[in-house]
Amino acid sequence: MKYNAKVYVSLKKGYSDPEGETAANALRGLGYTVDDVRASKAYEVSFQAEDRETAEAVLDEMCRRLLTNPTKDDYSFEIREV
To answer: Which domain holds residue 40?
Structure first.
């Protein structure tokens, strides 16, 4: 079966986020009341797997092995069969 997934990667709490801080400051400069902005990345992945359980396990492995740095990144994903 073919699956499409979206993987969302963000920095764990406590890690400096210069991109998010810059965006927050810019929004404040435009007059918006902003407490915090955190930057994140999103990946779209299309792949084959036998079933949904296997697809989720494979995608989780992709995240841990390449798409994220487990030391500093959190991630989540959405997956759907196509």
So the answer is: 2-81
